[in-house]
Amino acid sequence: MIYRLLDVLECPECGDPFHLFPFEIISLPINPAVRDDPPVCAEGCPWEQAEPESRYQCKQCFSKDIDSGVIRCRQNHLFPVIKGIPRLLPNAMAGALPSLQQDFGKLPDDVRNLLLNQHKTPDKHFERYFRHTLDSFSSEWRAVGESERAWGLDVPARRKLFLNCVGIGSEDLPGKSILDAGCGHGEVELALAKTGAEVFAIDLSFSVDAVQERVGKSEPAYASLVHIVQSNIHRLPFKQRAFDIIYSCGVLHHTPDTFAGFKTLSSCLKEGGIGYIEIYTAERKNPIAHAISNALRIVTTRLPHSIVHAFCFAGAPFLWLYTRSYNALIGKKLYGERSIREMELSLFDNFSPRYQHHHTTEQVMSWFKRLGYSNVRKTFETKNAVGVAGTMRSGSRR
Q: What proportions of the chain, in percent to the nearest 5, are helix, strand and coil?
């Protein structure tokens, strides 16, 4: 992570700002997409020189990555930075102590004493409502190879889809701050890496490690404009009205409360900003297939993930054959063309997560209006999902 990230982060436990204590700092290439007038660090540049005129050296800030360290809020909530990623989840600090302990000597005495007294105590709310989801999607994304596609789209197609969904052109991206809530395999991050937009990507699962590595390998010169955070949508670690665009594709319906998650995301959107969510639709479902799926999920959501993967691998060729045959029969692509590997991913995405809510288009659009959005419109639709976008009105309460 770079220091710039602290400008939008806040403690998910209390909402206080963070202070960063870096351990290991690595150099990044100067990002050619960083503007000549990049945003300055709100608290002053940590890399400032002695001369007052060089106080804000933000191009230098964008070339320094804190690979490991500790962040603390004023209420003494502590979280680790590991592999350049802030881990803002319950008990993340207690779990990280063994890997960070060798650097404790770099900390002030009061922070070091706080760390040494960290004890792993169960967060009952997190364990009850989010632990299964974390484990499920960590397993799902581990099974996808670095070079494999997740949903049948390459990087240019994913960029085009993003632009269509939020309703802007590529010329509108430079300088925009974008929150991708639920980054999964990192397709959106790769699609936006060279556009001049600053992307803030979060995920509950440990897929964030693969996304960080993927972006760093594919677009090393542009990596400093992609910020990865491990966190929970229902307890976001971001300041209110921090982003120009919020984007969440295929994620909120896998949380305990779809609307509550969307409301939390919307609090981070600037006035005049664009919000977009894509969720499972309650319309156009085959009632028989839906009933069978729900019956199977009673069992599969309780099975070890290795067994669910095996079940999905066995079913993937049949689903692949069905979708190809159906498209050929009706003479159009009702189902998107995916490989057998991608079909397994789709099946696992259906049968493993504990939560899987379906909503009507009318219901989703009513949420936007309720939260103060204008120009609410449907911008994406498939047999299984609907995507809705809106613009946050000035003076709206969220």
A: 40, 20, 35
